[in-house]
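Hey, can you fold this one?
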Amino acid sequence: MTQLTDHSPSVPQTAVPVQGGPVPALAASFMRGAMAAGLGLGALALVVMALWISSPYPDNGPDGALRLVAVLWLLAHGTELVRAETLSGAPAPVGVVPLLFVALPAWLVYRAARDALELGEGRLRPSAPGALCAVTAGYLLVGAGAAVYTADGPLAADPLSALFHLPLVTALAAAAGVWTASGRPHAPLPAWLPGRVREALARTRGAVALRSAAAGALALLGGGALVVAVSLVLHSGAVQDSFLRLAEPWSGRLAVLLLGFALVPNAAVWGAAYGLGPGFALGTGATATPLALAGDPALPHFPLLAAVPGVGRGTPLHWAAVAVPVVAGVVIACFTVRAAAPRHGARESAWGVRETALTALLGAVGCGVLTALMAAAAGGPMGTDRLAAFGPVWWLTGAAALAWTAGIAVPGALGVRAWRVRVPGRWWRRGAVEPVPEPASGAAAPVPSVPAPAGPPEPDDDGPPEPDDDGPPEPDDDGAAEADDDDGAAEAYDFLPSGSWAERESREEPAAVLKEASGSLTAGLQPVATPERERESALPEPPTATDPPAAAEPSAATEPPGEGAEPPPPR
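Sure. Predicted structure:
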């Protein structure tokens, strides 16, 4: 037994007893990996044995059913199977992996690796590399036993394929679990990258590019699923006929239904490849694209394959599938511009044009890589000769996804960014003052009519007006209260932006424009000298209630009049 001491400065030091050391912790992680593999095998065994028991005409005994469980478990990890009993006598490969099968073992390995790094009462926590290796080793030990068990059956696992795919899927799922348990740390850029590349990647927002790439790939996958659903509805008669011909008892039809449900992600990837343009192969002699289905397809009887368009040229309904990559490009642009130029952000905080374009391009590249990986996993051989190729070509599908999304996302992100950070022009503002047209040569410039400024009232001949005994007018309490309410409401909602940058500027700038225009119109105007204006200028301004009385300064207007001038009226 070892003792762990807490050296925290704020907590009293206490000794916690811990059983064992790092070796028992690694052994526990190893057992977690083996248990994850056993749970996956047990879940498949439950379904297969239930169908075998309910089948009225089972082909094999319990041993054959258990071998089928092991074969399906290995197939769920991407292992290619070999079917020995064929009409030609030559072994035929089966490499189309139902992608929904992969979810169960991957989730089990992920949970095992994540739980291995969680601290428990009275036990040590292994290191992250140690947990990864231990969980993977325990899982692979069970996988090796399953591969050996199916070696002499009618449907066996290909040894080379099992040696590559089983460790790859297990290690990736375990690494994801360890990374999650460690707090999802972000590693620095690798040192082998050139300096300019690392600088350009550092200036971009890598997290934004990754999110936009994942969103674009999901948009492609969802669009492909929609294309498949529409095709299933349009070919519902052929789909139903194929489903009923494959099996007559309800147990067989249930097995076909479960297999078709497991192949739905594959069909979604095929639909995405169809919308991107390269399409998918239906054997070595036929390819289905939105333009046409060329060649002689080799289609086995299966409900999902019954929804494939017929041989011949495509129709406008088939051409409409190209909307799938368009939507994916728009999604990448929206995710990019949402961070590059937020709608209610400040113009100074917006990204530059180069940074926005590069981030959108990186999102398109990531979407192309993810699409190529999905296309490679969704297809494979179904036999020999004409059945040797089924599904999309991964490199063509990835290149098409990159071209579509980059061609739409980059200009789309730049266009939305430019619109949000634009300086609005005066031609579109409501209430903008039109410029005064310049006069023609030889013609007098039109003098705009400007109202005279309001001044003090002209004195009557009888003398100056008598002051009001009641005093200055009292302020209106209702108006002050309303003004206070308006100020309070403005302060309460001051933190909420009332529009985009351009909309806010369009409401703030018209007042300045009107003030500038009125100043330019009245700049060169001189008041006409009249006796009334002279008398008004001679009168001093009345003092306000708040200003202290001050002595009047002599000015030109208060100088004694000359000979013959009319004296000012008495005050």
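The first helix runs from residue 22 to 54. Let me know if you want another pass with a different chain boundary.
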